[in-house]
Amino acid sequence: MTRKYSSISVETTLATGISNSATTMTVASGTGSALMGGVTLAPGNTDIFTVALDVDTQNEEVVYITQVSSDTFTIVRARAGTSAIAHTGGATVKHVLTSDDLNFYTAGVATADAAIPETVVTAKADLLVASASGVVDNLAVGTNGQVLTADSTQTLGVKWAESTGGSSSVSDVLMLMGG
Predict the structure, then answer these.
(1) pLDDT at residue 167, as a whole number
(2) Cα gap 13→128, rounded to integer Å
């Protein structure tokens, strides 16, 4: 699931109470879009938007909004270590950032780092090159004037080599053109 966040979400209230097993909730008339703060959720429950009900009370519950229809939301109950409990009409509904959100972010960073760790590149102009399917390694930059050349005898399949043909300066190109 992709987590969605808003910096302009506006707190609202429940229009009617919900039981501890409800999977939808309705907020005060006309406040659904303000609560979402401009965030739209993709169809099919692939996105989530985190809110808390009864914020900063003993009845606080964190829920994920997975679908939006005006002021009515489809919700997943009891997130971030909270319990599903009944909430009365008028209960506060507020977009929140939870430890679950931060753990999700941290896990994503770790996954990205594991994909191609930053430590693979160690110097200016290093290149990432595959030595096999899914195996990435570092190719250090060559010396000035060298070109990258395909070479299947090399572990990485390429190497830096001196240019063996063609013109390399503007004056050489002009001479070849008859200029």
Answers:
(1) 53
(2) 52
pTM for this model (two decimals): 0.62
Domains along the sequence of the chain with CATH? 2-108 (2.40.30), 118-176 (no CATH)
Copy the structure tokens of residue 166.
């063609």
* Secondary structure element (H or E) that encloses residue 150, with its range: strand 146-150
Q: Cα separation of 106 and 108, whole Å?
A: 5
Query: Mean pLDDT by 10-residue block, N- to C-terminus, for the chain (179 residues)?
Result: 89 98 98 96 91 96 97 97 97 93 75 73 88 87 90 92 69 55
Alpha carbon distance 40, 93 (integer Å): 18
CB 75 within 8 A of CB 37: no
**Residue 89, CA atoms < 13 Å, CB-side half-sphere:** 5
State how beta strands 72-79 and 61-69 pair.
Answer: antiparallel
Structural contact between residues 71 and 28, judged by C-beta atoms closer than 8 angstroms: yes
- Cβ atoms within 10 A of the Cβ of 50, count? 22
User: Can you give the C-alpha Rg of the chain in angstroms?
Assistant: 28
Shortest CA distance to 73 belongs to which of 105, 36, 110? 36
50 in Cβ contact with 98 (< 8 Å): yes
What's the CA gap between 57 and 36, in Å, rounded? Answer: 22
- Coil/strand/helix, residue 2: strand
